[in-house]
Amino acid sequence: MTACDSPLTPNSGLRRTVPQSPLLDRIRQRHREVNELAATGMSLSVISRRLRLDRKTVRRYRNKDLEDLFASAQDRGHGVLDPYIDHVQHRFKAGCTSSMQIYRELLALGYTGGYHVVNRYVMTIRKGIAIPARTATPSPRTITSWIMRPLGTLSPSDAAQLEAARNACPEIASACDLAREFTDMLRHRRGHQLRSWIQKAELSGPDAIGVFADSIRQDLKAVTAGLTLPYSSGIVEGHVNRIKTIKRQMYGRASFTLLRARILLQP
């Protein structure tokens, strides 16, 4: 019987309590020391000098509950494996206790980390100290990158997380649809669709996109031409960027005569 076919032992379930570790023990001690000193009326500066901690650290330990500090410390321990923790725990519960087998499965799902990360987490499951799976909220920048990239370039994991964000927030779904429609107009020069897009954005889009649509309406002819004609000011903007780069390189180092020569002669 292979590791992936072997049944779990009766005591191999995941522990839902906060695991013991030197880091968490240190957090408990600092939290107790800071709050004991703060209860005596000491200021942040005095506590900071007494415990040899930064004032911001002292403030955080004073103002936050112990559970919040634990959660913050546990968050720092997660990274590239975060989106796949549910899968790892599900497979382990199903009897697949081989780190290598789980690692191969994660690679097929789009995992980009190393084997040692998976193996280390599986070891914590075996010991019963694994941190339970948490639903991480993607940052606005991450969601924006998913929206602006073509669907075919998203990994299965990214596509699934984007779909979950769309289902959880109607505004994200609306922003996603409008952004992709506008991107399609830009890439395929479909300026004739701009008026209908503006109406849709103003009526049903999020406030930020509605403001963007209103700014387009104020210069509708120019934007329509930009989305229709093959001409652009890209070459001019490129030369402006080149001139600014040369100017910054020579600032305070040479005369205007040499700057003029470089601009005129340097390709």
Walk me through the structure.
The protein has helices at residues 22-39, 44-51, 55-63, 66-76, 85-93, 99-108, 115-127, 140-148, 156-168, 170-188, 194-204, 207-217, 220-226, 234-250, 256-265. The chain is an all-alpha fold. Among the domains are: 1-133, no CATH class; 234-265, no CATH class. Helix 1 packs antiparallel against helix 4 (66-76) and helix 6 crosses helix 7 (115-127). Residues 5-18 have low confidence and may be disordered.
List keywords for this structure.
extended; 267 residues; mainly alpha; single chain
Low-confidence stretches: 5-18
Q: Note the run of SSEs as H and E.
A: HHHHHHHHHHHHHHH
**Alpha-carbon distance between the two ends:** 69 Å
Helix content: 55-70%
Radius of gyration over all CA atoms, rounded:
28 Å
Number of helices: 15
Based on secondary structure, the structural category is mainly alpha
Number of E-type strands: 0
Strand fraction = under 5%
Largest sheet: none
Question: How would you classify the quaternary structure?
Answer: single chain
Helices and strands in order:
Blueprint: H1 22-39, H2 44-51, H3 55-63, H4 66-76, H5 85-93, H6 99-108, H7 115-127, H8 140-148, H9 156-168, H10 170-188, H11 194-204, H12 207-217, H13 220-226, H14 234-250, H15 256-265
Helix pairs in contact: 1-4, 2-3, 6-7, 9-10, 10-11, 11-12
